[in-house]
Design a protein that fits this description.
Blueprint (H helix, E strand, L loop, with lengths): L4 H48 L2 E3 L5 E3 L7 H8 L5 E7 L4 E4 L12 H6 L3 E6 L5 E10 L11 E9 L1 H48 L17 H51 L4 H32 L7 E5 H19 L3 E4 L4 E5 H17 L7 E7 L3 E8 L21 H6 L13 H11 L3 E7 L3 E9 L3
Parallel strand pairs: 9-11
Antiparallel strand pairs: 1-2, 3-4, 3-7, 5-6, 6-7, 8-10, 11-12, 12-14, 13-14
Helix pairs in contact: 1-4, 5-6, 6-10, 7-8, 8-10
The protein binds adenosine-5'-diphosphate.
Protein backbone atom coordinates (compact mmCIF):
# COMPACT_ATOMS: atom_id res chain seq x y z
CA UNK A 1 0.00 0.00 0.00
CA UNK A 2 2.88 2.38 0.84
CA UNK A 3 4.29 1.61 -2.58
CA UNK A 4 1.54 3.71 -4.02
CA UNK A 5 2.33 7.39 -4.49
CA UNK A 6 -1.33 8.19 -4.04
CA UNK A 7 -1.50 6.42 -0.65
CA UNK A 8 1.68 8.15 0.46
CA UNK A 9 0.39 11.55 -0.62
CA UNK A 10 -2.85 11.03 1.30
CA UNK A 11 -0.96 9.78 4.34
CA UNK A 12 1.38 12.76 4.32
CA UNK A 13 -1.52 15.11 3.86
CA UNK A 14 -3.38 13.48 6.77
CA UNK A 15 -0.32 13.49 9.01
CA UNK A 16 0.47 17.15 8.30
CA UNK A 17 -3.11 18.18 8.72
CA UNK A 18 -3.56 16.22 11.97
CA UNK A 19 -0.38 17.68 13.40
CA UNK A 20 -1.51 21.17 12.44
CA UNK A 21 -4.94 20.53 13.92
CA UNK A 22 -3.57 19.12 17.19
CA UNK A 23 -1.02 21.92 17.63
CA UNK A 24 -3.47 24.70 16.78
CA UNK A 25 -6.20 23.03 18.92
CA UNK A 26 -3.86 22.91 21.91
CA UNK A 27 -2.79 26.49 21.33
CA UNK A 28 -6.38 27.67 21.00
CA UNK A 29 -7.45 25.85 24.16
CA UNK A 30 -4.52 27.08 26.28
CA UNK A 31 -4.90 30.64 25.00
CA UNK A 32 -8.62 30.59 25.72
CA UNK A 33 -7.98 29.21 29.21
CA UNK A 34 -5.43 31.95 29.89
CA UNK A 35 -7.77 34.66 28.55
CA UNK A 36 -10.74 33.36 30.57
CA UNK A 37 -8.79 33.18 33.84
CA UNK A 38 -7.24 36.56 33.19
CA UNK A 39 -10.77 37.96 32.59
CA UNK A 40 -11.87 36.58 35.98
CA UNK A 41 -8.75 38.06 37.62
CA UNK A 42 -9.39 41.51 36.13
CA UNK A 43 -12.98 41.28 37.36
CA UNK A 44 -11.78 40.37 40.89
CA UNK A 45 -9.33 43.29 40.90
CA UNK A 46 -12.06 45.69 39.84
CA UNK A 47 -14.40 44.30 42.52
CA UNK A 48 -11.69 44.67 45.13
CA UNK A 49 -11.15 48.34 44.22
CA UNK A 50 -14.84 48.83 44.38
CA UNK A 51 -15.12 47.21 47.85
CA UNK A 52 -12.22 49.34 49.15
CA UNK A 53 -14.32 52.39 48.37
CA UNK A 54 -17.11 51.11 50.64
CA UNK A 55 -14.96 51.33 53.79
CA UNK A 56 -16.17 54.45 55.64
CA UNK A 57 -14.72 56.19 58.73
CA UNK A 58 -16.92 58.35 60.96
CA UNK A 59 -15.51 61.57 62.35
CA UNK A 60 -15.47 59.88 65.74
CA UNK A 61 -13.19 57.14 64.37
CA UNK A 62 -15.83 54.41 63.87
CA UNK A 63 -15.19 52.27 60.78
CA UNK A 64 -18.12 50.99 58.67
CA UNK A 65 -18.58 48.96 55.56
CA UNK A 66 -21.60 50.27 53.63
CA UNK A 67 -22.63 48.01 50.77
CA UNK A 68 -26.13 49.52 50.50
CA UNK A 69 -24.66 52.87 49.56
CA UNK A 70 -23.52 51.48 46.27
CA UNK A 71 -27.04 51.48 44.98
CA UNK A 72 -26.33 48.83 42.36
CA UNK A 73 -29.04 46.35 43.07
CA UNK A 74 -27.69 43.58 40.92
CA UNK A 75 -24.29 43.64 42.60
CA UNK A 76 -25.69 43.56 46.12
CA UNK A 77 -28.08 40.76 45.17
CA UNK A 78 -25.26 38.61 43.90
CA UNK A 79 -23.36 38.94 47.16
CA UNK A 80 -26.54 38.54 49.24
CA UNK A 81 -27.69 35.29 47.70
CA UNK A 82 -26.40 32.27 49.61
CA UNK A 83 -23.49 30.41 47.91
CA UNK A 84 -24.07 32.44 44.75
CA UNK A 85 -20.47 31.98 43.71
CA UNK A 86 -19.66 35.69 44.33
CA UNK A 87 -17.99 36.36 47.66
CA UNK A 88 -15.97 38.90 49.58
CA UNK A 89 -14.31 39.24 52.98
CA UNK A 90 -12.86 42.44 54.52
CA UNK A 91 -10.54 42.27 57.55
CA UNK A 92 -8.83 44.75 59.81
CA UNK A 93 -5.07 44.30 59.78
CA UNK A 94 -5.45 42.68 63.18
CA UNK A 95 -7.33 39.87 61.43
CA UNK A 96 -10.69 40.86 62.84
CA UNK A 97 -13.39 40.69 60.17
CA UNK A 98 -14.99 43.98 59.13
CA UNK A 99 -17.43 42.62 56.59
CA UNK A 100 -18.26 39.19 55.09
CA UNK A 101 -20.55 38.80 52.11
CA UNK A 102 -23.87 37.23 53.12
CA UNK A 103 -23.46 34.82 50.22
CA UNK A 104 -20.77 33.00 52.25
CA UNK A 105 -23.23 31.90 54.94
CA UNK A 106 -21.27 30.12 57.66
CA UNK A 107 -18.40 29.41 55.31
CA UNK A 108 -15.24 31.41 55.60
CA UNK A 109 -12.48 31.63 53.05
CA UNK A 110 -9.01 30.90 54.42
CA UNK A 111 -6.96 34.09 54.70
CA UNK A 112 -3.29 34.77 55.43
CA UNK A 113 -3.30 38.28 56.90
CA UNK A 114 0.49 38.47 57.33
CA UNK A 115 1.19 37.45 53.76
CA UNK A 116 -1.46 39.83 52.43
CA UNK A 117 0.05 42.76 54.37
CA UNK A 118 3.56 41.94 53.18
CA UNK A 119 2.91 41.20 49.54
CA UNK A 120 1.20 42.96 46.68
CA UNK A 121 -2.21 41.53 45.74
CA UNK A 122 -2.13 37.85 44.76
CA UNK A 123 -4.47 35.32 43.15
CA UNK A 124 -5.03 31.68 44.00
CA UNK A 125 -7.54 28.96 43.40
CA UNK A 126 -9.36 27.01 46.08
CA UNK A 127 -12.63 25.23 46.73
CA UNK A 128 -15.78 27.20 47.54
CA UNK A 129 -18.64 26.46 49.96
CA UNK A 130 -20.42 24.26 47.41
CA UNK A 131 -17.21 22.49 46.54
CA UNK A 132 -16.99 24.64 43.39
CA UNK A 133 -13.63 25.85 42.07
CA UNK A 134 -13.04 29.34 43.32
CA UNK A 135 -10.66 32.06 42.17
CA UNK A 136 -9.61 34.32 45.05
CA UNK A 137 -7.88 37.70 45.03
CA UNK A 138 -6.34 38.91 48.28
CA UNK A 139 -4.85 42.37 48.70
CA UNK A 140 -4.36 45.11 51.23
CA UNK A 141 -5.69 48.68 51.13
CA UNK A 142 -4.74 51.67 53.27
CA UNK A 143 -7.25 54.23 54.50
CA UNK A 144 -5.06 57.31 53.86
CA UNK A 145 -7.68 59.57 55.35
CA UNK A 146 -9.84 59.83 58.46
CA UNK A 147 -9.30 61.12 61.94
CA UNK A 148 -5.99 61.21 63.77
CA UNK A 149 -4.81 57.76 64.75
CA UNK A 150 -6.84 56.06 62.00
CA UNK A 151 -5.27 57.50 58.84
CA UNK A 152 -2.75 54.66 58.57
CA UNK A 153 -5.26 51.90 59.23
CA UNK A 154 -4.91 49.01 56.73
CA UNK A 155 -7.41 46.38 55.61
CA UNK A 156 -7.21 43.08 53.82
CA UNK A 157 -9.83 42.56 51.14
CA UNK A 158 -10.61 39.20 49.58
CA UNK A 159 -12.84 38.86 46.57
CA UNK A 160 -13.75 35.49 45.13
CA UNK A 161 -15.59 34.29 42.04
CA UNK A 162 -16.69 30.80 41.19
CA UNK A 163 -14.83 29.34 38.20
CA UNK A 164 -17.70 26.98 37.39
CA UNK A 165 -18.84 28.94 34.36
CA UNK A 166 -15.33 29.51 33.07
CA UNK A 167 -14.52 25.82 33.50
CA UNK A 168 -17.76 24.80 31.85
CA UNK A 169 -16.93 27.03 28.89
CA UNK A 170 -13.43 25.54 28.64
CA UNK A 171 -14.83 22.00 28.91
CA UNK A 172 -17.25 22.65 26.06
CA UNK A 173 -14.43 24.14 24.00
CA UNK A 174 -12.39 21.00 24.67
CA UNK A 175 -15.33 18.82 23.64
CA UNK A 176 -15.82 20.83 20.48
CA UNK A 177 -12.18 20.46 19.55
CA UNK A 178 -12.17 16.73 20.29
CA UNK A 179 -15.36 16.04 18.35
CA UNK A 180 -14.38 18.18 15.40
CA UNK A 181 -11.02 16.36 15.20
CA UNK A 182 -12.30 13.20 13.43
CA UNK A 183 -14.55 15.30 11.16
CA UNK A 184 -11.61 17.50 10.19
CA UNK A 185 -9.52 14.38 9.67
CA UNK A 186 -12.17 12.92 7.39
CA UNK A 187 -12.31 16.12 5.34
CA UNK A 188 -8.53 16.32 5.16
CA UNK A 189 -8.46 12.68 3.99
CA UNK A 190 -10.95 13.51 1.24
CA UNK A 191 -8.97 16.65 0.38
CA UNK A 192 -5.79 14.57 0.25
CA UNK A 193 -7.46 12.06 -2.04
CA UNK A 194 -8.61 14.84 -4.36
CA UNK A 195 -5.18 16.48 -4.43
CA UNK A 196 -3.47 13.11 -5.00
CA UNK A 197 -5.85 12.36 -7.87
CA UNK A 198 -5.38 15.75 -9.47
CA UNK A 199 -1.62 15.74 -9.11
CA UNK A 200 -1.23 12.18 -10.36
CA UNK A 201 -3.43 12.69 -13.39
CA UNK A 202 -0.57 13.90 -15.62
CA UNK A 203 1.39 10.77 -14.62
CA UNK A 204 -1.56 8.59 -15.59
CA UNK A 205 -1.81 10.29 -18.97
CA UNK A 206 1.94 9.91 -19.36
CA UNK A 207 1.85 6.17 -18.65
CA UNK A 208 -1.08 5.82 -21.04
CA UNK A 209 1.00 7.42 -23.79
CA UNK A 210 3.96 5.20 -22.89
CA UNK A 211 1.73 2.14 -22.89
CA UNK A 212 0.73 2.83 -26.48
CA UNK A 213 4.30 2.41 -27.66
CA UNK A 214 5.24 -1.10 -28.74
CA UNK A 215 7.91 -2.72 -30.90
CA UNK A 216 5.78 -2.00 -33.95
CA UNK A 217 5.40 1.69 -33.13
CA UNK A 218 8.88 2.56 -31.93
CA UNK A 219 8.75 5.75 -33.99
CA UNK A 220 6.14 7.22 -31.62
CA UNK A 221 7.32 9.78 -29.08
CA UNK A 222 5.91 11.40 -25.95
CA UNK A 223 4.82 14.97 -26.73
CA UNK A 224 7.20 16.90 -24.53
CA UNK A 225 5.19 20.09 -25.03
CA UNK A 226 2.03 18.46 -23.72
CA UNK A 227 3.30 16.97 -20.45
CA UNK A 228 3.50 19.02 -17.25
CA UNK A 229 6.75 20.75 -16.36
CA UNK A 230 7.77 18.17 -13.72
CA UNK A 231 7.46 15.34 -16.23
CA UNK A 232 9.35 17.07 -19.05
CA UNK A 233 12.71 15.66 -17.97
CA UNK A 234 11.22 12.18 -17.72
CA UNK A 235 9.64 12.54 -21.16
CA UNK A 236 12.98 13.73 -22.57
CA UNK A 237 14.84 10.79 -21.04
CA UNK A 238 12.16 8.39 -22.24
CA UNK A 239 12.27 9.78 -25.78
CA UNK A 240 16.07 9.51 -25.78
CA UNK A 241 15.77 5.86 -24.70
CA UNK A 242 13.25 5.31 -27.48
CA UNK A 243 15.68 6.88 -29.97
CA UNK A 244 18.37 4.43 -28.88
CA UNK A 245 15.95 1.49 -28.89
CA UNK A 246 14.66 2.38 -32.32
CA UNK A 247 18.22 2.63 -33.62
CA UNK A 248 19.17 -0.70 -32.02
CA UNK A 249 16.05 -2.30 -33.48
CA UNK A 250 16.81 -0.85 -36.90
CA UNK A 251 20.38 -2.14 -36.73
CA UNK A 252 19.18 -5.54 -35.58
CA UNK A 253 16.76 -5.76 -38.51
CA UNK A 254 19.39 -4.61 -40.97
CA UNK A 255 21.86 -7.06 -39.51
CA UNK A 256 19.45 -9.93 -40.03
CA UNK A 257 18.72 -9.02 -43.63
CA UNK A 258 22.41 -8.32 -44.36
CA UNK A 259 23.45 -11.65 -42.80
CA UNK A 260 20.87 -13.55 -44.86
CA UNK A 261 22.04 -11.72 -47.92
CA UNK A 262 25.68 -12.59 -47.29
CA UNK A 263 24.84 -16.26 -46.85
CA UNK A 264 22.51 -16.38 -49.85
CA UNK A 265 25.24 -15.47 -52.35
CA UNK A 266 27.62 -18.42 -51.63
CA UNK A 267 24.62 -20.75 -51.27
CA UNK A 268 23.31 -19.84 -54.75
CA UNK A 269 26.82 -20.18 -56.22
CA UNK A 270 27.09 -23.67 -54.65
CA UNK A 271 23.59 -24.56 -55.84
CA UNK A 272 24.36 -23.68 -59.46
CA UNK A 273 27.70 -25.57 -59.34
CA UNK A 274 25.83 -28.64 -58.05
CA UNK A 275 23.06 -28.38 -60.67
CA UNK A 276 25.36 -28.29 -63.74
CA UNK A 277 27.10 -31.68 -63.13
CA UNK A 278 23.83 -33.21 -61.91
CA UNK A 279 22.01 -32.44 -65.19
CA UNK A 280 24.36 -34.64 -67.29
CA UNK A 281 27.66 -36.49 -66.95
CA UNK A 282 30.78 -34.27 -66.96
CA UNK A 283 34.48 -34.85 -67.31
CA UNK A 284 36.62 -35.46 -64.21
CA UNK A 285 38.23 -32.03 -64.66
CA UNK A 286 34.81 -30.36 -64.68
CA UNK A 287 33.76 -32.21 -61.49
CA UNK A 288 37.02 -31.15 -59.86
CA UNK A 289 36.45 -27.52 -60.86
CA UNK A 290 32.87 -27.59 -59.47
CA UNK A 291 34.08 -29.11 -56.18
CA UNK A 292 36.82 -26.49 -55.91
CA UNK A 293 34.34 -23.65 -56.32
CA UNK A 294 31.97 -25.25 -53.80
CA UNK A 295 34.83 -25.76 -51.36
CA UNK A 296 35.87 -22.11 -51.80
CA UNK A 297 32.31 -20.98 -51.03
CA UNK A 298 32.09 -23.26 -47.99
CA UNK A 299 35.35 -21.77 -46.65
CA UNK A 300 33.94 -18.30 -47.21
CA UNK A 301 30.74 -19.21 -45.38
CA UNK A 302 32.66 -20.84 -42.58
CA UNK A 303 34.65 -17.62 -42.01
CA UNK A 304 31.50 -15.56 -42.23
CA UNK A 305 29.69 -17.73 -39.68
CA UNK A 306 32.77 -17.75 -37.46
CA UNK A 307 32.87 -13.94 -37.60
CA UNK A 308 29.17 -13.68 -36.82
CA UNK A 309 29.58 -15.96 -33.82
CA UNK A 310 32.59 -13.98 -32.61
CA UNK A 311 30.58 -10.77 -32.87
CA UNK A 312 27.61 -12.14 -31.02
CA UNK A 313 29.83 -13.57 -28.26
CA UNK A 314 31.77 -10.32 -28.01
CA UNK A 315 28.56 -8.38 -27.76
CA UNK A 316 27.37 -10.50 -24.89
CA UNK A 317 30.82 -10.12 -23.35
CA UNK A 318 30.96 -13.90 -23.23
CA UNK A 319 34.20 -14.35 -25.12
CA UNK A 320 36.64 -15.60 -22.57
CA UNK A 321 39.33 -12.98 -22.17
CA UNK A 322 42.62 -14.39 -20.97
CA UNK A 323 43.97 -11.21 -19.55
CA UNK A 324 47.74 -11.01 -19.37
CA UNK A 325 50.48 -8.42 -19.65
CA UNK A 326 51.20 -8.02 -23.33
CA UNK A 327 54.08 -6.25 -25.03
CA UNK A 328 51.93 -4.54 -27.63
CA UNK A 329 54.90 -3.57 -29.84
CA UNK A 330 55.91 -7.26 -30.15
CA UNK A 331 52.32 -8.26 -30.87
CA UNK A 332 51.98 -5.67 -33.63
CA UNK A 333 55.35 -6.67 -35.14
CA UNK A 334 54.26 -10.32 -35.20
CA UNK A 335 51.00 -9.36 -36.90
CA UNK A 336 52.88 -7.32 -39.49
CA UNK A 337 55.20 -10.25 -40.24
CA UNK A 338 52.15 -12.48 -40.82
CA UNK A 339 50.74 -9.97 -43.29
CA UNK A 340 54.07 -9.13 -44.90
CA UNK A 341 53.67 -11.56 -47.89
CA UNK A 342 50.35 -9.96 -48.80
CA UNK A 343 51.81 -6.44 -48.53
CA UNK A 344 54.83 -7.47 -50.61
CA UNK A 345 52.59 -8.95 -53.26
CA UNK A 346 50.88 -5.59 -53.56
CA UNK A 347 54.15 -3.68 -53.30
CA UNK A 348 53.15 -1.80 -50.18
CA UNK A 349 55.95 -1.05 -47.73
CA UNK A 350 55.12 -1.23 -44.02
CA UNK A 351 57.16 0.91 -41.68
CA UNK A 352 56.87 0.27 -37.99
CA UNK A 353 58.26 2.56 -35.32
CA UNK A 354 58.15 0.38 -32.20
CA UNK A 355 58.31 1.59 -28.65
CA UNK A 356 58.03 -0.58 -25.53
CA UNK A 357 54.31 -0.56 -24.66
CA UNK A 358 52.67 -2.90 -22.18
CA UNK A 359 48.92 -3.39 -21.93
CA UNK A 360 46.66 -5.80 -20.09
CA UNK A 361 44.66 -7.86 -22.56
CA UNK A 362 43.77 -11.00 -24.45
CA UNK A 363 46.54 -11.82 -26.91
CA UNK A 364 44.39 -13.57 -29.51
CA UNK A 365 41.77 -10.87 -29.50
CA UNK A 366 44.27 -8.03 -29.77
CA UNK A 367 45.99 -9.88 -32.61
CA UNK A 368 42.61 -10.03 -34.35
CA UNK A 369 42.29 -6.25 -33.94
CA UNK A 370 45.61 -5.47 -35.64
CA UNK A 371 45.11 -8.19 -38.22
CA UNK A 372 41.91 -6.47 -39.34
CA UNK A 373 43.25 -2.93 -39.24
CA UNK A 374 46.51 -3.71 -41.06
CA UNK A 375 44.72 -6.02 -43.51
CA UNK A 376 42.37 -3.12 -44.35
CA UNK A 377 45.33 -0.74 -44.65
CA UNK A 378 46.82 -3.11 -47.27
CA UNK A 379 43.49 -3.90 -48.91
CA UNK A 380 42.40 -0.29 -49.39
CA UNK A 381 45.84 1.02 -50.30
CA UNK A 382 47.24 2.35 -53.57
CA UNK A 383 50.37 1.17 -55.38
CA UNK A 384 52.38 4.20 -54.35
CA UNK A 385 50.86 4.32 -50.81
CA UNK A 386 52.61 2.88 -47.77
CA UNK A 387 51.72 2.02 -44.19
CA UNK A 388 53.24 3.52 -41.08
CA UNK A 389 52.61 2.16 -37.59
CA UNK A 390 53.58 4.31 -34.61
CA UNK A 391 53.20 3.97 -30.85
CA UNK A 392 52.37 6.78 -28.44
CA UNK A 393 52.27 6.70 -24.68
CA UNK A 394 50.05 8.92 -22.61
CA UNK A 395 49.41 9.11 -18.87
CA UNK A 396 46.90 6.30 -18.83
CA UNK A 397 46.90 4.77 -22.29
CA UNK A 398 48.91 3.43 -25.17
CA UNK A 399 47.88 4.64 -28.62
CA UNK A 400 48.79 2.67 -31.73
CA UNK A 401 48.31 4.61 -34.96
CA UNK A 402 48.03 2.74 -38.24
CA UNK A 403 48.30 5.28 -41.06
CA UNK A 404 47.94 4.32 -44.71
CA UNK A 405 48.30 6.32 -47.89
CA UNK A 406 45.34 4.54 -49.44
CA UNK A 407 42.05 5.45 -51.06
CA UNK A 408 40.63 7.06 -47.87
CA UNK A 409 37.03 7.08 -46.68
CA UNK A 410 34.39 9.58 -47.72
CA UNK A 411 32.79 11.84 -45.13
CA UNK A 412 29.41 10.12 -45.67
CA UNK A 413 30.88 6.67 -45.06
CA UNK A 414 33.10 7.61 -42.12
CA UNK A 415 30.42 7.51 -39.36
CA UNK A 416 29.26 4.05 -40.50
CA UNK A 417 32.40 2.02 -41.03
CA UNK A 418 32.16 0.35 -37.60
CA UNK A 419 28.61 -0.88 -38.29
CA UNK A 420 28.19 -4.52 -39.18
CA UNK A 421 28.15 -5.37 -42.88
CA UNK A 422 28.88 -1.77 -43.76
CA UNK A 423 31.09 -1.38 -46.83
CA UNK A 424 31.95 2.01 -48.20
CA UNK A 425 32.70 0.58 -51.65
CA UNK A 426 31.43 -3.02 -51.87
CA UNK A 427 32.67 -3.72 -55.40
CA UNK A 428 36.18 -2.68 -54.45
CA UNK A 429 36.10 -4.60 -51.17
CA UNK A 430 34.96 -7.81 -52.83
CA UNK A 431 37.65 -7.69 -55.45
CA UNK A 432 40.35 -6.84 -52.95
CA UNK A 433 42.98 -9.35 -52.08
CA UNK A 434 42.76 -10.15 -48.38
CA UNK A 435 44.69 -12.00 -45.72
CA UNK A 436 43.98 -15.70 -45.27
CA UNK A 437 41.22 -16.28 -42.71
CA UNK A 438 39.64 -12.88 -43.27
CA UNK A 439 36.19 -12.44 -44.78
CA UNK A 440 36.52 -10.89 -48.13
CA UNK A 441 34.76 -7.58 -47.83
CA UNK A 442 31.81 -8.72 -45.71
CA UNK A 443 31.98 -5.53 -43.67
CA UNK A 444 32.33 -7.27 -40.30
CA UNK A 445 36.02 -6.66 -39.57
CA UNK A 446 35.75 -3.21 -38.01
CA UNK A 447 32.66 -4.11 -35.93
CA UNK A 448 34.66 -6.98 -34.40
CA UNK A 449 37.62 -4.64 -33.85
CA UNK A 450 35.43 -2.07 -32.09
CA UNK A 451 33.81 -4.69 -29.82
CA UNK A 452 37.19 -6.12 -28.82
CA UNK A 453 38.76 -2.72 -28.14
CA UNK A 454 35.76 -1.63 -26.07
CA UNK A 455 35.83 -4.94 -24.17
CA UNK A 456 39.38 -3.95 -23.23
CA UNK A 457 38.10 -0.58 -21.91
CA UNK A 458 39.70 1.11 -24.88
CA UNK A 459 38.41 3.02 -27.89
CA UNK A 460 39.13 3.34 -31.59
CA UNK A 461 39.01 6.50 -33.68
CA UNK A 462 39.61 7.19 -37.34
CA UNK A 463 40.66 10.14 -39.44
CA UNK A 464 40.53 9.96 -43.19
CA UNK A 465 40.75 12.01 -46.34
CA UNK A 466 39.59 10.52 -49.63
CA UNK A 467 42.50 10.04 -52.03
CA UNK A 468 45.08 10.77 -49.33
CA UNK A 469 44.72 8.00 -46.76
CA UNK A 470 43.32 6.95 -43.39
CA UNK A 471 44.68 6.76 -39.86
CA UNK A 472 43.14 4.37 -37.31
CA UNK A 473 44.07 5.10 -33.66
CA UNK A 474 43.64 2.29 -31.17
CA UNK A 475 43.64 3.51 -27.55
CA UNK A 476 44.24 0.85 -24.91
CA UNK A 477 44.67 1.32 -21.14
CA UNK A 478 48.24 0.87 -19.93
CA UNK A 479 48.98 -2.16 -17.78
CA UNK A 480 49.17 -1.25 -14.12
P1 LIG B 1 35.50 -5.09 -44.97
O1 LIG B 1 35.38 -6.54 -44.80
O2 LIG B 1 34.62 -4.55 -46.02
O3 LIG B 1 36.93 -4.62 -45.08
P2 LIG B 1 35.50 -3.68 -42.47
O4 LIG B 1 34.54 -3.70 -41.39
O5 LIG B 1 36.90 -4.09 -42.17
O6 LIG B 1 34.89 -4.52 -43.64
O7 LIG B 1 35.52 -2.23 -43.06
C1 LIG B 1 34.32 -1.57 -43.37
C2 LIG B 1 34.52 -0.60 -44.50
O8 LIG B 1 35.36 0.48 -44.08
C3 LIG B 1 35.24 -1.18 -45.67
O9 LIG B 1 34.33 -1.79 -46.57
C4 LIG B 1 35.92 0.02 -46.29
O10 LIG B 1 35.03 0.66 -47.17
C5 LIG B 1 36.19 0.93 -45.12
N1 LIG B 1 37.60 0.85 -44.68
C6 LIG B 1 38.07 0.17 -43.65
N2 LIG B 1 39.41 0.39 -43.52
C7 LIG B 1 39.76 1.22 -44.48
C8 LIG B 1 41.02 1.83 -44.90
N3 LIG B 1 42.15 1.61 -44.26
N4 LIG B 1 40.99 2.64 -45.99
C9 LIG B 1 39.84 2.90 -46.64
N5 LIG B 1 38.64 2.35 -46.31
C10 LIG B 1 38.60 1.53 -45.26
Amino acid sequence: MLNSIKARLILWFLLTFSLLFIVSGFYLYLEQKRATLSGVDRFLEAKSEFLAGLIEVDPDGQIHFEPQEVGIKRQSTLYDFSFSGHYYQVFFESGRPLALSPSLGDFSLPVEIDRALKEEGYFWTTTGPRGEPLRVYTHKVGLNHGPVGKENERFVIQTAESLEEAYAFLASLKRLLLYSGPVALLFSGLGGLLIARLSLRPLKLFSKEVGEISETSLDKRIHEGKVSRELKELAKAFNATLDRLEEAFRQQKRFLSDASHEIRTPVSVMKSYCEIPLRKARSAAEYKRALEVIFEQIKKMEILIENLLTLSRLEQKRLSTHLERIALDDLVENTVSLLAPLAERKGIPIRIVPRPSVVQGDKIQLMEVFMNIIDNAIKYNRPEGGIEITFKEEEKEIIVEVADGGIGISNEALPHIFERFYRADPSRAKEADTAPGKTQGAGLGLSIVKEIVENHQGRITVQSEPGVGSTFSIHLPKAA
